[in-house]
Every structure is written in structure tokens, then in C-alpha cells.
Amino acid sequence: MFNLMPKIAVFSETTDLKQQADALAQHLSLPVAENPDDYDYLLILTDQALALKKNGVKTLPLVIDFLSGPMTYRRQHASLKRETLARALGLKGHSTDKIVDATAGLGRDSFILASLGFHVQLLERSPIIQVLLEDAINRALPDPQVGPIVSRMHLCKMDSIHWMQQQTIDMRPQIIYLDPMFPERSKSALVKKEMLMFHEVIGDDPDAGELLSVALTCATKRVVVKRSRLSAPLLGRIPSFTMEGSSSRFDIYLI
């Protein structure tokens, strides 16, 4: 069944931000909302942050915030031993391996890896998520504790498959991480509201299989794929080994 993409516009809460809103709308090829109710979603520009809001619902706008309480807690409690993702990626202290998060999304996984001291290349093809991520990184940079962390997060605004295909032999990363979006089944557990917004605004990743295939030709050490715990391996390709959590698992493909 084909789902129509929602109507999205840029909206500024004050006239002081009109010039910035116009520039953002032009960059994203979106209209500036004169009547906000005419649109399904609004990219709202405020003095504090850039936010994505769904019209007609009471849920809070989606803001990527690396300075938030939950992210502060995760950062303060992160360790190589505690973080399953870090172990799945095969990371050791003082590793200089090049890590690529090829499905950056909200950037939370990359933030935790960066908080452990690693540099991460974030690839994101959605222009809307790109600007939300860029806004979050720019807001966090002045913070004395979080600034050094986000400075290790290097955002690349392009399609991951295209990026990987462009890498020459001497540029290829050692590790590639994939967390593709998939259609939510009606019988699945209730997903977070922010992920529902992702599905509506960004859509799924129908080329996830191709993404894995290209990643396996690009990475020099391993590719790690995050999956729902009971899901079949991506492309039916059996991983070298897996690491499981309560609701998800990591399929590790050694090169």
C-alpha cells in the first residue's frame, strides 16, 4: 500500500527568526507556513532549538538534544563493558578504527560511541534529519563537557550507499554500523511516538538489503546490523555471530 508523504512546512515562532526560516525553507525546498494548520508537520524554528512537530496531536515536538537529562545519564554511565553496541563493534580502548554510522537517525548511538572517546562518521540522507542533527551538534558544541564529545561526531549529508561506493581502497572504514528503518507491523509492540513520526516523515529503508551488501564490500573489519530480537537476519544472510539484548540484537559480520 502506497503512503502519501505528509505536507511539511517551516515555521518560525517570532518575526526575528523570519530570515533564518526563509533560508531553511529554501535549503529544504519547503514552504514557509503562513497558516500552520494547513500542514501535517512543521519544522519549528525557535531561539532554543529546531523542532519537528506533528499538527493536530498533543505530543511534544521532536528535538534532538545531546544535553538532555536522559542523554546525560547515558553518557555518564557509558562504558565499553556496559554498552552492547561498543562490544558488537569490537571496540577497545584507544582504538583508532574508523567507525561509520551509515543510518545516523537521531544520532544517539553515535553520541554514546563518541562519549567513549571514538570518532564516528554519521551518514544521513534525509534533509530534515540532517538539519535536526546539525542543530543539535551546534547547540552542544559550546558545552564544556559535551562539546568535546560532539566534536568527534562528523556529519556527512548524503546517501550512505553512494558514500560507500565512492570510497577508495585507502579510504575504506574498518567498521560500519547499520540500524535501518523497517515498516512497523500492526501486531508489534507500541513504538515510541518519535519513531512513528520518523516513519511518517522519513519513511522506511526499502534499500536496507542493498545497504548491507554494499557495506560488506566497503568495511575492512566488520559490519554490524541492529535488528529486532526475533527478526530474521537482513537478506537472510547468517552473521558470523550475534549479541542479544532484551528487545534487539546485533548481527556481526566479520570481513
Overview of this structure, please?
With 255 residues, the protein is α/β, with parallel strands linked by helices. The protein has two domains: 8-54, S-adenosyl-L-methionine-dependent methyltransferases; 69-254, Vaccinia Virus protein VP39 (Rossmann fold), CATH 3.40.50.150. Helix content is 31%, strand content 19%. The chain has helices at 18-28, 69-77, 84-88, 108-115, 127-140, 147-150, 160-166, 193-201, 208-218, and strands at 8-12, 41-45, 50-54, 99-101, 120-123, 153-156, 175-178, 222-228, 241-244, 248-254. Helix 7 (160-166) runs parallel beside helix 9 (208-218). The radius of gyration is 19 Å and the shape is globular. The model is unreliable at 184-191 (pLDDT under 50).
Q: Please trace the helix and strand order, writing H or E for each element.
A: EHEEHHEHEHHEHEHHEEE
For the secondary structure, the number of strands is 10
Shape: globular
Counting H and I runs of at least 4 residues, what is the number of helices?
A: 9
Number of domains: 2
Q: Tell me the CATH superfamily of the largest domain.
A: Vaccinia Virus protein VP39
Q: Multimeric state of these chains?
A: single chain
Reading off the top of the CATH hierarchy, the class of the largest domain is best stated as Alpha Beta
CATH A-level architecture of the largest domain: 3-Layer(aba) Sandwich
Poorly predicted runs of 5 or more residues: 184-191
Main sheet makeup: 7 strands, mixed
Give the integer mean of the pLDDT values.
Answer: 90
Instruction: Name the strands of the widest sheet in spatial order.
Output: 6-5-4-7-8-10-9
What is the CA-atom radius of gyration, in angstroms?
19 Å
What helical percentage do the residues reach?
25-40%
Which class do the helix and strand fractions yield? alpha/beta
CATH topology assignment of the largest domain = Rossmann fold
| Proportion of beta-strand residues | 15-25%
